[in-house]
Amino acid sequence: MVSDNLQKFYIDGEWVAPLSHTRIGVENPATEEIVAQIAGGGMADADRAIMAARGAFLSFTATPVKDRIDLMQAILDEYNRRA
């Protein structure tokens, strides 16, 4: 089952519909078959993501260093768990 989120972007903590209607085919390299379509962003989508990232960065830098390290460690642990 293909996720509806293939047609969205994760920006500012939520899945949002892109402002651009561009779609990009995802190809299975073994068969060259297009197996999914994903959203392809435009300049307005990039601007929206950049503004959200700037806002997140400002609040993240106010977070104590130990908390930031703990968060990064938790992300690394999850990546390793899934590997």
Describe the structure.
The protein is built from 2 helices and 4 strands. It has 83 residues and is an alpha+beta fold. It has a two-stranded antiparallel sheet. Strands 3-4 form a two-stranded antiparallel sheet. Strand 1 and strand 2 form a beta hairpin. The longest helix is centred in the middle third of the chain and has 19 residues, at 43-61. The radius of gyration is 17 Å and the shape is flat. The mean pLDDT is 93.
What's the short story on this structure?
This protein is α+β, with helices and mostly antiparallel strands. It has helices at 43-61, 65-82; strands at residues 9-11, 14-16, 22-27, 34-40.
Name the overall outline. flat
Question: Termini separation (Å)?
Answer: 22 Å
| SS strand fraction | 15-25%
How many helices? Answer: 2
Number of strands: 4
| Low-confidence segments | none
What is the string of helix and strand elements?
EEEEHH
| Rg | 17 Å
Structural class: alpha+beta
Overall helicity: 40-55%
Note the main sheet.
2 strands, antiparallel
Strand order of the biggest β-sheet: 1-2
**Average pLDDT for all residues:** 93
Q: What layout of secondary structure does this protein have?
A:
Layout: E1 9-11, E2 14-16, E3 22-27, E4 34-40, H1 43-61, H2 65-82
Write a concise keyword list for the protein shown above.
83 residues, alpha+beta, 2 helices, 4 strands, 45% helix
